């Protein structure tokens, strides 16, 4: 998806500890700690217009990073919150408490390539990072009155079992700016299945930012 954006958009991906080229590092089980660590890196970067896009746990992480950066007066121009209910909407979820429930949930959401799902050894190797992610997002709590100032675009799938339409709309409670809700056909991983449509939304945003900057 990143390669399909305009060349003047500098895409930087955040790689969590315990995954891929950081697989030797200890996974982080607390979302606030993870947000603090990423914030410490971002605050030392050159001041450029930032746009955050986070899917699932990444949406909440983007929200927490926005809070921290805005407190310093350097918040992003927009947050794209994808595939995740609003921060203060609560569900009792305990997927992280056993390997079996984690594997069952991953299979249910079909978020991993079918070849990997059938590779028991690979799935077991991925479990520490998956467990940390699930624990971080399932133990995260946010009060209803906590807001950011930047506008938020919420991207959601119309059949996502992790986010209802009302839970997606509830992001409006967490910004003093505008809320733009975009509903796509699909489940939790609509962002991959409907990547062309998602890219169109992103390009519209960057075009508007270019026009605003030039103007």
Overall 3D form: globular
Count helical runs: 8
Distance N to C terminus: 28 Å
Instruction: Report mean pLDDT, rounded to a whole number.
Output: 89
**How large is the share of residues in beta strands?**
5-15%
Low-confidence parts: none
Helices and strands, in N-to-C order?
HEHEHHHEHEHH
Radius of gyration: 17 Å
Number of strands: 4
Going by helix content, strand content and strand pairing, the class is alpha/beta
What's the arrangement of strands in the largest beta sheet?
1-2-3-4
Q: How is the biggest beta sheet arranged?
A: 4 strands, parallel
Helix content: 40-55%
Could you explain how this protein is built, in words?
Residues 2-204 form the Thioesterase domain. The chain is α/β, with parallel strands linked by helices. The chain is built from 8 helices and 4 strands. A 4-stranded parallel sheet has the order 1-2-3-4. α1 packs across α2. The longest helix has 20 residues, at 195-214. The radius of gyration is 17 Å and the shape is globular. The two termini are 28 Å apart. 30% of the residues are buried. The mean pLDDT is 89.
